[in-house]
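Subject: Sanity check before I submit

Could someone independently write out the structure tokens for this chain? I want to compare against mine line by line before I put it in a report. The sequence has 376 residues.
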Amino acid sequence: MNTTPSIAWLKNRWVILGAIALLSLLLLTVLAAPSTPQASGSSFSRSPDGYGAWYAYLQQQGIAVERWERPYKDLDAELQKRGLPEGSVTLVQVTTDPLAPIFDAEKWLQQGNRLIILGFREPVTPANFRSTQPSPGGAVTVDTRRRRKLRQGEQQQLGDSFGAVVWQTSLHQGEVISTTTPFLAANAYQDEPGNFKFLADLATAEGNTTVWIDEYLHGYKEADVIVEEIGQTWGAYLANTPLLPVLFQAIALVVVLIWAGNQRFGLPLRLTTPKINNSRAYIEALAGVLQKAESSEFIVEVIGKEEQLRVQHALGLGNTLLDPDQLVNAWTAQTGRPANELNQALQPYWQKRRLSETDLKIWIGKLQTLRHQLPT
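---
Independent answer below. Compare away.
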């Protein structure tokens, strides 16, 4: 009786079941995982709506930029702790959530500091979704139809006939700068240098030398803040952790492991005997013998010859070993470097000297340095 078709069917059946199990685990991971809308606009994010590229741009420009990961009540204490003068810090908040909590900025502004809010919700206008706005630092690309109708005391920083895209308001001794788009200098605009420069100029204008990017708004917190807010106990941590996705994933993983432990995906495979690398074994054995015999002449001869040929090839002198004087003259003529560099590297080989283990390591280091000096 021919059993080949049934065996093939069983093999395909287990493959299909395995694929279904893995797909189920993947779907559970995706569907049950908690969403993280707070990550949009974060300087930790490398997605198109993140601000990681702008953060790196500020660092490249030599601007003092940091991430703020503490409650807003700590702002004043942090300024005093660092000895920063009043009116020297700009706090940048990027929010795509109109209901996101905005801190009470009165004291912050009274000290002469600046607050930039990216993502202030304004009405939609008939303006084109994409437009290019002129600015002192270059053209700024804007992707939004939302515009601000200026009110008393507000000054337009960027906009068109439909209204303001960026505007400034002076409050107390400080300033508030708002935009109708949260993505003014997001990662998606890395090819628009005017966007990055425009926002950087806003953050550092009027003598503001330090920029803090609000990551507390996006859920990032320093370790001591987490301990203070949810406590140090496992019970407090679990009480604030969504366990349903973890439970689903754990159950799916256990089912897959149990099933995989009792079934095989096809016929058993025979164990193969690993092949012995005779060349490697010979080299290792020879190295051990030479080390015990303290015979370094052979090593110096082999390595020195190869390194001289390497130098000759780099200088275009062929494969025939030259006299030391000929090689040194060619070295100085073609590289313009002193002859002493080549002499020190190849002298042990030319003089057939015996080297101690320490001297051998030093010599190898000189040869490595010589390689970096060879013309390419």
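---
OP: Matches mine. For the report I'm noting this point. The chain has a mean pLDDT of 80.
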